[in-house]
Specification:
Keywords: Chaperone, Cytoplasm, Ribosome biogenesis, rRNA processing. With 170 residues, the chain is mainly beta. The protein folds into two domains: 84 residues, Beta Barrel (Elongation Factor Tu (Ef-tu), domain 3); 65 residues, PRC-barrel domain (SH3 type barrels, Roll), CATH 2.30.30.240. It has two helices and twelve strands; from the N terminus they run βββββαβαββββββ. It has a six-stranded antiparallel beta barrel with strand order 1-2-5-4-3-6. Strands 10-9-8-7-12-11 form a six-stranded mixed beta sheet, with no helix packed on it. A hairpin with a 5-residue loop joins strand 9 and strand 10. The protein is elongated. The two termini are 28 Å apart.
Length: 170
């Protein structure tokens, strides 16, 4: 899946009375907000850029004061909006690591070349991610482990896996 814009946060509500907003980070790299000078805000199909002023962490949230927003009433209108960045603004990942939105939609093959289906979701379990593959029947749950996932080719849109014995019967 190759989106033009990637969601990195969601504005939940206002924070204080000076027009700051409370953002739920939708990224594994919440520290990125401190280095941003501007961000695209998307709400109900409309997108606009805002200049990032103050940024600080509060519990599990990011508090952002946009320079263009001067009141709590103006900030209230942004409630429910998403903060987005372009693909070129993503944090570079280490080799053999992928963004979830790039994994979803990949065709999955076993090492023998048999088409197992397409990745429809990624479950984040804590220990390791699990790829949900639509097989046309019962979903196949594939652990995202190096010994299982043999290759991922985003250009070709495919993943090759070596399924542990008995996994397909679960």
């Amino acid at each position: 899946m190759h989106e033009s814009y990637i969601r990195i946060g969601k504005i939940l509500k206002t924070q204080g009375n000076r027009g700051a907003v409370r953002v739920l980070p939708l990224t594994d790299y919440p520290e990125r907000f401190k280095n941003m000078s501007r961000v695209q805000v998307s709400l109900k199909g409309f997108r606009t850029f805002f200049t990032v002023g103050e940024v600080y962490h509060h519990k599990n949230f990011i508090i952002i004061k946009f320079k263009e927003i001067e009141s709590m009433a103006a900030a209230e209108k942004l409630k429910g909006a998403f903060l987005e960045v372009g693909r070129d603004e993503l944090v570079p990942l280490p080799e053999d690591r992928f963004y979830i939105f790039d994994i979803i939609g990949l065709k999955v093959y076993d090492t023998g070349g048999r088409n197992l289906g397409r990745v429809t979701d990624v479950l984040q379990t804590g220990a390791n991610d699990v790829y949900v593959v639509d097989t046309g029947g019962k979903p196949l749950l594939i652990p995202a482990l190096k010994q299982v996932v043999k290759s991922v080719n985003l250009t070709e849109g495919k993943m090759v896996v070596e399924l542990p014995e008995g996994l397909e019967e679960l």
